[in-house]
Each structure stands twice: as C-alpha cells, then as structure tokens.
Amino acid sequence: MLDVEKIRRDFPVLNREVRPGVPLVYLDSTATSQKPRQVLEAMDNFYRASNANIHRGIHTLAEEATASYESARRRIAAFINAAHAHEIIFTRNTTESINLVAYSWGRANLQAGDVIVLTEMEHHSNLVPWQILAAERDLRLEFIPVTEEGLLDLEAYHRLLDLRPKLVAFTQMSNVLGTINPAAEIIAAAHQVGAVTLVDGAQSVPHIPVDVQALGADFLAFSGHKMLGPSGIGVLYGRTELLEAMPPFLGGGDMIKRVELRSFTTNALPYKFEAGTPAIAEAIGLGAAVDYLSAVGMQAIEQYEREMIAYVLERLEEIPGVRVFGPAAEHKGAVASFTMPEAHAHDISQVLDELGVAVRAGHHCAMPLHTKFGIPATARASFYLYNTRQEVDRLVEGIYRVKHIFG
Amino acid sequence: MDDLYRELIIDRYKNPQFRGQLDPADITFEDDNPYCGDHIRVDVRLDENNVVTEARYSGEGCSISQASADLLIEYIHGKTLDEVKALTKEDVLDLLGIQLGPVRLKCALLSLKVLKAGAYGLGEATDDLVE
C-alpha cells in the first residue's frame, strides 16, 4: 500500500496555491511529472559539492562527478533490468533516443522498399523520425490500426508481419488513450519474422514495472522528466550486440578513442553515443528519481494508479455528455482524455485552471489519433503516485462548472 | 474567469452571426493553429472599390477563437481592403474586450492571421501578420 500523504510531503510544488486560496491540483503528469525534494537535493548537492566535468580530470571533483554519473547509469540499468549498464545511453529525452535509432541503426540497416510497422496511436516522436527516414530511403510505413475501443488490432498486426518488416516500433502506453499494449506479445511476434523492435516507454517506464529482458525489447526509449526526474535527460536502452554494430550518431568529445586530423576511432559503449559534455546533474537527478520510484515500488504504483483510473472513469462516466476515449480501466494507465459537447478542450482547461486544476488540452502530440476519432482536441487529466481521490473530485466539480458556464 | 468568459464571448460562441462559407468569394483563406488544432477559414466578397460587402468564417475551435472570428468578420463589413490589411492585434482585443495570456492570444488572433494572409494574397499565414 502506498502512503500518499507521506509521498505528497516530498513534493514541494504540491503545497503551492495557484492563486490565493486556490490550491494546485496537478493532473498533467503525462506531460511532465513533478519532482520530489530527493531529486532536487541530489542535483543541488552535485552543483554545491562536486561539480566538475566527467571522464576527463584526474582531480577529486572530476572523479566524484564521474562516479556519481556512472552510478546513476547503473541504478537506471537495474531499474529496467538491463543486462549491462553500458546498454543505457543517456540522451536528452525519448524523442532524441528514437531519433538516435532512426539515424544510426536505421541508416545502416534499411534500404528502399523495406517495411517499418508503427501504430496509429503513436506520439509524433515515434512517427516523424520514421517519416523522415522513409522519405530519404524510400521505405514503406505500415500501421497497426486502433480499434474503436482504443486497443491495437492484433489480428491486423499479424497480417502486417507477412510483409516481413525490418522494424516494429510502438508505444507501450498511449499518452492519449492510456492503453497499455501487450508489449511482450508484440515483440515476440516481431522476432518470429526477424524484425528489430523499439518500444516507446515514455509513459510506461514511469508508471508500470518494465523489465527489458522479460519483454525481449531490442530498444527502449524513455524520458527522465516524466518519471520524477529533471528535464534534459532521457535514456536509450539498446541490446549490446545492436549498439556495438551501429555507427555513431553525434560526433565529438567523449565518443572517440583516438582522433587524427582526417579520421577517428569510436569509443566503447555507452560513450560511443554520448558525444560532448552530457547533462551530468540531470543524470544524477534521474538516478535519484529511480531510487525514489524503487523505494515506493513500481508494483505498488501500478496498483495505486489502477484503482485511481477505475475511480476516475466511474466519476466521469456519471457526468452527462462527457466522452472518455480509450479502453476500459483494466487495459489502461491513469490517463483520461475526454470531450464535452458544450465546450472545446481549451475552454475546459481554462475553466479548470481557475479552480486550480491543471489538465492538458489539445492533440497531445498525437494528431493522427485525434483525426482517427474525428475530434480536433481533447482535455486530458493524468494521474501519478501523488494524486488523491479528493483531487479527482475537484476535477469533477470543475467539469460541472464548465457545464454551468457553457451549458 | 467571469472576465474571460464575458457574456458577449459565450453568446457569440453559442450563437454565431457570421458563420458560414461564401461561394464564390474574392478572398478565401484557411489555416490551423498547430498547437491546439483550431482551424479557421474566411471568405470575403469585395465590390469594385475593394470594399467588403460580405464575409463569413468557418472552422472549429475554442470559444475565444470562434467568438473573435465572429466579431472580427462582423467588424470588417464596409471596410476597404487596405483597412483590413492594416488591422492589428489591438483591434481584435478591443472587440473581445478582455485581456488574454500568451496561449489564448494565439486562439484569439487566428482569425485575424488568416484574414490578413488572404487579404495580402500570401501563401501562408505567419505570426508576424498579427504582432
């Protein structure tokens, strides 16, 4: 069981009032999560006590900085059960991780006519890099359809596998529908036809236990800022043998073993893919974030959010006219995207903000999915380990206020 | 909030006066706000002296974007093409009678951006038209 009141005390921002007398109800963790003091302190301590560049100096501070940075990498590897710490490549975010795979693995392995299978529920970050590569290399993009209910059509997926795709790239949890996709099953089927797999874990890694070895994933991309860590740090997990065979992505310091005027040799993993001074304090902050999540327990978080979304759906469904997108609670994470006949998503969000309730409004970087459902925008309330049922009730009150103004 | 959702805006959103399309029209232009998916199209008819005789808008969006379009289209009736080209952000805010934050400002100015891009005969509606 999760002690929410204790958890809330760790998040300074949750104490603030949006305006005098109006406490913050933060329901936008799918966009970015709030940060506990443990993460803020880890970064602050680094800058106050041991700030130095890594992998370079021989002095004490440089050694401490390197040790902290590499320790964060090892704890993040353990968090997703990677076999080796060198399989954790630090990037800026999920988007950069996917672009790294597209530029490096994609350009080395894909030729004209090759097929990439994606899904209709992808975030733009797992669409556009492949569209760019497809245009450049004359590749064919195919999409696993999304059913009315908001699930992937797995029968259609199995038919797409007859095309012998080279890559299957999909989100483990939709940032709009909340759908948790059967990643292990999708990956196993892809491997049957020899495809490499990339999992967009931007939403799954923060909210459910993710074990890359149990999944069999070849690549997993995720962002620090959605899992209690700072912005500016993300991760690409890749299986050693794939990463070894890939050409470097960005060139510069740290990614080289030896440089001459007209040539270079690449450094070992993971440094081969970490050119230039990385986001050191942010990596250390992400290390503190996975410590925090591990201490609470990812299974406890998943369970808590399952109960939360069941309550959210029950409360929203009792409001006339409110339409929630995505599957039933048992297939979904704690994300509720909805529309109201009376008001546009922007107006819903604006009225809720007056009551201190922060939700996202728009297409949530998933325009094709909104087009599929025939709606320009949704309002999205999303929940994390620090949200309470009382906050759900505030959301519902706010929705009734929207009905009062626009009804 | 009572300021933002003043009666005029809610009324124009629910009961628009100038919603529709004109075919044929002398000026037709449409564009989206990429951040939120709001979409506005304007159709304008001019007489031989380049005075607006009839105008309509269509599209989808929030109350601010739709109400500002409705008010703006009403306002340009009887104006010359040059006067339409000279319209500014302040004109739209005066019509709405409210102050807006940076995000909602984009909603409010989408119709002006589309209208001016059409008036100037541009290929696309850019933000510098309304700054």
CATH class of chain B: Alpha Beta
Uncertain segments of chain B: none
Largest sheet of chain B: 3 strands, antiparallel
According to CATH, what is the class of the largest domain in chain A?
Alpha Beta
Distance between the termini of chain B: 25 Å
SSE string of chain B: HEEEHHHH
| Overall morphology of chain B | globular
Number of structural domains of chain A: 2
Q: Which structural class should the secondary elements of chain B be placed in?
A: alpha+beta
Mean pLDDT of chain A: 96
Question: Using CB atoms under 8 Å apart, which protein chain pair has the greatest interface?
Answer: A-B, 17 and 19 residues
CATH architecture of chain B: Alpha-Beta Complex
Fraction of residues in H or I helices of chain A? 40-55%
Specify the CATH homologous superfamily of the largest domain in chain A. Type I PLP-dependent aspartate aminotransferase-like (Major domain)
Q: What fraction strand of chain A? A: 15-25%
Largest beta sheet: strand ordering of chain B: 1-2-3
Please give the structural blueprint.
The complex is a heterodimer of chains A (407) and B (131).
Chain A lengths: L3 H6 L7 E3 L2 E2 L1 E2 L10 H14 L9 H20 L8 E4 L2 H16 L5 E5 L8 H10 L2 E5 L9 H7 L6 E5 L11 H10 L3 E5 L3 H4 L4 H4 L3 E5 L10 E5 L1 H6 L10 E5 L2 E4 L13 H17 L1 H20 L5 E3 L9 E5 L5 H10 L2 E2 L1 E3 L4 H7 L4 E5 L6 H18 L1
Chain B lengths: L6 H8 L12 E7 L4 E9 L5 E9 L2 H14 L4 H5 L3 H8 L5 H19 L11
Antiparallel strand pairs in B: 1-2, 2-3
